[in-house]
From TrEMBL:
<dbReference type="Pfam" id="PF00096">
    <property type="entry name" value="zf-C2H2"/>
</dbReference>
<keyword id="KW-0677">Repeat</keyword>
<dbReference type="GO" id="GO:0000122">
    <property type="term" value="P:negative regulation of transcription by RNA polymerase II"/>
</dbReference>
<dbReference type="GO" id="GO:0005634">
    <property type="term" value="C:nucleus"/>
</dbReference>
<dbReference type="GO" id="GO:0000981">
    <property type="term" value="F:DNA-binding transcription factor activity, RNA polymerase II-specific"/>
</dbReference>
<dbReference type="InterPro" id="IPR013087">
    <property type="entry name" value="Znf_C2H2_type"/>
</dbReference>
<keyword id="KW-0863">Zinc-finger</keyword>
<dbReference type="GO" id="GO:0008270">
    <property type="term" value="F:zinc ion binding"/>
</dbReference>
<comment type="similarity">
    <text>Belongs to the krueppel C2H2-type zinc-finger protein family.</text>
</comment>
<keyword id="KW-0479">Metal-binding</keyword>
<feature type="domain" description="C2H2-type">
    <location>
        <begin position="94"/>
        <end position="121"/>
    </location>
</feature>
<feature type="domain" description="C2H2-type">
    <location>
        <begin position="38"/>
        <end position="65"/>
    </location>
</feature>
<keyword id="KW-0804">Transcription</keyword>
<keyword id="KW-0862">Zinc</keyword>
<dbReference type="InterPro" id="IPR036236">
    <property type="entry name" value="Znf_C2H2_sf"/>
</dbReference>
<keyword id="KW-0238">DNA-binding</keyword>
<feature type="domain" description="C2H2-type">
    <location>
        <begin position="66"/>
        <end position="93"/>
    </location>
</feature>
Length: 175
């Protein structure tokens, strides 16, 4: 019944995550103490639950049994499909307590919170600029390396970001 009501009385002392079943908490605690007895034979990753190992194995086999009813995209696990469905429903269940902005994934909220805390853990080794997201640091590094991964289909000019192609930096008279 707790699963249906959303009641989660079992809380992890380490990270404060809550669970509806004590058995789920017990399994979760193994992630903090490093007890992961289920090992992938192909890449040596380890898991606390056999179910997670089986889901992981689909990465290696390419199996995607969970299909989106809207766009038919396949996913290796049900959680991936659940996250994906938020694109179609515009559901944003993860809300910022400070500014009320909503997010479709918890990781996006975690990254967003760094705006409010000022946390910038990703540091450029070349100019000491700091970023809240690793993705932003990776994009920034292209300034130093000169890498221009994005090419205009018309003039073949290279750009640091995909967005630069659609800016006034690359305008053609036939568009």
């Amino acid at each position: 019944m707790r699963i249906h009501t959303g009641e989660k009385p079992f809380e992890c002392d380490v990270c404060k995550r809550s669970f509806s079943l004590n058995s789920n908490l017990t399994t979760h605690i193994k992630t903090h103490i490093g007890e992961n007895p289920f090992k992938c034979d192909m890449c040596d990753r380890r898991f606390s639950r056999n179910y997670n190992l089986n889901t992981h194995m689909r990465i290696h086999t390419g199996e995607k049994p969970f299909k989106c009813d809207v766009c038919k995209r396949g996913f290796s696990g049900n959680s991936g499909l659940t996250r994906h469905m938020r694109i179609h429903t515009s559901e944003k269940p993860f809300k910022c307590d400070i500014c009320e902005q909503g997010f479709s994934q918890s990781g996006n909220l975690t990254t967003h919170m760094k705006i409010h805390t000022g946390e910038n853990p990703f540091k450029c080794d070349m100019c000491d600029r700091r970023f809240s997201r690793n993705h932003d640091l990776t994009r920034h590094m292209r300034i130093h390396t000169g890498e221009k991964s994005f090419k205009c289909d018309i003039c073949k000019q290279g750009f640091i970001t995909n967005g630069d192609i659609t800016t006034p930096m690359c305008i053609h008279t036939d568009e």
